Structures are given as structure tokens and as C-alpha cells.
Amino acid sequence: MEIFIELWKAKDAWKQLPLTERQAYVAQIGPVMEDLIKKGVVIEAWGINKDETPFASDYDFFAVTKLPSHELLTEFEAIVEDAGWYNYFDQVNVSGSAKTPEEVIGKMLAL
Fewest Cβ atoms nearer than 10 Å: which of 3, 72, 76, 109? Predict the structure, then answer.
């Protein structure tokens, strides 16, 4: 199981698009996500970052997605990039295999 976490905020290129163009861009996401869901992708959460979160990042939005394989994660990453997402949004990503707390702590201790 692969986990993909995205943090993003709008670039000026997005903010300057007319609303109708933003709506058209967002409308293309639905069918693509439906296809990925059929392949086993699970959207765990999308959200808006709360300003009052202690040590908050300066990104406005987040998404957490579970993918059944590394190959599907690679496909998902390519779809996002090919859609021109990064032209409109400043984004950072975190990904990796799901681990237990003990596995992660063991890795931390081994540093």
C-alpha cells in the first residue's frame, strides 16, 4: 500500500484565470479520479489547512490518497503533472509505503 500526501496553494497563474476556465479545468478531474478509483485508489481526505494549526505549513490545501501499488502511484503522479497542475499550484508531495509506528520509530532510532 502506497500513501501519497499533497500540500498545495494557488499560484498567480490560477488566481488570474477567469472563473469559467478554472471551472473547466476542475471539471476534468472527476472522470480521471473515477478511473483511478476503479483501479483501487482510495481518497482518504481532501482538506483546507487551518491557520490556527500549531507549526502550520504555509500551504492552503491537502490531500491524502492510498494507492494499492507503486506502479499506480507512478501513474497518478504522471497524470497530475501531465494535467498541468503544477503550472497553477505550488505543491509539495510526500509518498511512501504504509508502515507501522514501530517500523517508523525503528528507522528514526537508526539514524
Answer: 109
For the chain, the structural domain boundaries read 2-109
Q: What is the 3-state secondary structure (H, E, C) of 34-64?
A: HHHHHCCCEEEEEEECCCCCCCCCCCCEEEE
Residue 30 confidence (pLDDT): 87
Superfamily per CATH, domain 2-109: Apc35880; domain 1 (3.30.70.1030)
Q: What is the pLDDT of residue 70?
A: 94
pLDDT of 9 > 90? The answer is yes
Cα distances (Å, whole numbers) of residue 42 to 29, 72, 83, 84, 87: 15, 12, 20, 22, 25
